[in-house]
Amino acid sequence: ITHKKLPNGFEYIEVKNGVAEAKIALQGAHLFHYARVGKEPILWLSEVSDFEKGKAIRGGVPICWPWFGFNKDKALPQHGFARISMWEFVCSNELDEKTTVLTFKLTNSEKTLQIWHYKFELELRITISDKLTMELKTTNRDEKEFKITQALHTYFAVSHISDVAILGLDKKPYLNALTYKNEEQEGDITFNEEVDRVYQDVDDEIVLRDKNREIHIKNQGSSSVVVWNPWIEKTKRMSAMQENAYEYMLCIESANAFDDARAIKSQESHSLKAVIC
Ligand code: BG6
């Protein structure tokens, strides 16, 4: 592993082992590149993304925590503060020449206590091997119970949005975040308009089928999955997105969102895990 710094001071860690490579920013413990050796990257990263203090990278895997989506208090950041906070890099372990595990940590500070009134410990373990594993463990270090919503907000790179399908969510109920209606999925998901949905009761593997590859996602500690593509108009309104960006990305987010919010008692933990291959 190598520690790197951009001219503006933005720090990240580069990992290379016998089978894969990855890049993780210290801000947000934000994984923004992962590829198997000799293969195309799995994650999408905006060509015009900011690598700047206080701004979330557009692409990779932002960590939405301790709330997913907007906060009732509109002055607070969308998707929580974890993705724009500086994390501590705890350690890296090379389990063998094909497996590197990196651990990052975030704990409450005066600043976080002002906007979210609980003491916590958040640990992210990223395993870089021939598959990608991310495990986000929340421990309640407060005396009071707290409730979180969260997501590993994975942006996948796709050959073209019209050529992909998501399998594994047939018959699942979902909240359509564009209409706030509850609906039910019929068959595979394909894309020809803006999609922003929170699927519920998900326990099986999800498959992103592209022209020349399939990505398999298996979540643990999660029964909700967000599927999102901003399409044409929303892309124009978004930060750090080129006009045609929506054609080459698709978010499938491993989540605890809406009905799947998790209450965590004092000194107890909850882990949200995604295995992607
Ligand atoms: C998704 C939401 O998870 O994140 C979308 O479902 C939202 O509604 C998107 O637009 C991106 O959010 P942000 O804050 O990174 O622009």
Automatic annotation (TrEMBL):
Binding-site residues, substrate: 58, 78, 83
Gene Ontology MF annotations: carbohydrate binding; glucose-6-phosphate 1-epimerase activity
Catalytic activity: alpha-D-glucose 6-phosphate = beta-D-glucose 6-phosphate
Enzyme Commission no: 5.1.3.15
GO biological process: carbohydrate metabolic process
Record: active site: 153, 253
Keyword field: Isomerase
Similarity remark: Belongs to the glucose-6-phosphate 1-epimerase family.
Protein name, entry field: Putative glucose-6-phosphate 1-epimerase
